[in-house]
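Collaborator request, handled under Task 6.
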Amino acid sequence: MTQNKTAHDPYAALRIKEFLFFLNTRFFLTLAIQMQSVIVAWQIYAITKDELALGIIGLSEAIPFILVSFFSGHVADVFSRKRIILISVSFLILSTSALLYFSLETSTVLSTYGTLPIYLVFGFIGIVRGFISAAFPAFMAQIVPREHFANSATWNSSVWHVGAVIGPAVAGIICTISFSAAYTVNIVFIILSIFSFLFIASKPLPSKEKKESLKESLSGGIKFVFSNQLVLGALSLDLFAVLFGGAVAMLPAFADKILHVGAMELGFLRATPAVGAIFTAIVLAYKPITKNAGRSLFINVALFGVATILFAISTNYYLSLFFLFLTGAFDNVSVVIRHTILQLSTPDEMRGRVSAVNSIFIGSSNEIGAFESGVAANAMGLVRSVVFGGAMTILIVAGTYKIAPKLRKLNLKSIE
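Structure tokens returned to the collaborator:
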């Protein structure tokens, strides 16, 4: 009996030493960013008790994030990606240190200026994250061989979601002590991410087939995305689903007004979608989606919308946790498939710019979606606004299914 040499290896990417250091960096950085989101949201809601104020957090970060992303992708394709990441994360430490200073008992910044200083710092963090979002995926593609891109996408997503589970839970617990203590722990995690990243060697930039002007380079990523139906379809589907379907930004209000729980329970609510995503990631590591990837993508994004609606109408804390678990589980199928499409379809010399466009579509849509949620909640009520978002997600799936036949019929093996 002959041995099957082509059997799927669920741990293929994990056998690469530098990828393990990359995942360690990813974990601590995600831990810190997710902690920060919960701390800031709870702090601003404690000051204002206003859903719209929660939405403005997202907008204050999204606008500078989008503006800088048009340039950060070009930078990631012409300068050392490792150096970009190290400098950007160092600025993240400085930004979080400012938030810590605002929150000290001896500080009069927030009592004098209200929430404005927090919004300004988050705007600067949006710029920093714009550079990280362009350089990070491009750098990962230089660590992992092409044949392991799908496997690395699964593990990368898994580690992100583990951080997204632990970060909010830790933030919720420490916020019961003080906001300054929470920001202090936040800074420690960012420092740990830099320490791990130092063990990865710098990688040479891929050579370009032709010289480009700055204008051509800046527009190259956008032109590539809009000329590729698979990439554009996957990004658009995710963008509008996140834009309308995300309930995460309103969780402090749900915790307070609907579920009547505190900061610790908020941390668990924020972490639960990531628990669902980890469950999906484990399944996908052993049973990757390839042949019917397009159909699976549409089905799971639609189910994400259904789970969002069920969360909105729940008044039981534990049922709400379950429905949030489902949103994360269904959403992660989309994340893994989208990331795999991007890695397999993008030329090496364009990874920074395409990653930046991806960040504009996906990363900023979380923040803009938070603003949309805040405005909608202010206009039509908290529960109705999230039900509306879930329903819009389902309608967007139906529309994209009709206009993107290549995505509908996607087989990942066909683009490897």
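The cover message to the collaborator said: "Residues 1-5 have pLDDT under 50 and may be disordered. The chain is about 80% helix and 0% strand. Please let us know whether this matches your experimental observations."
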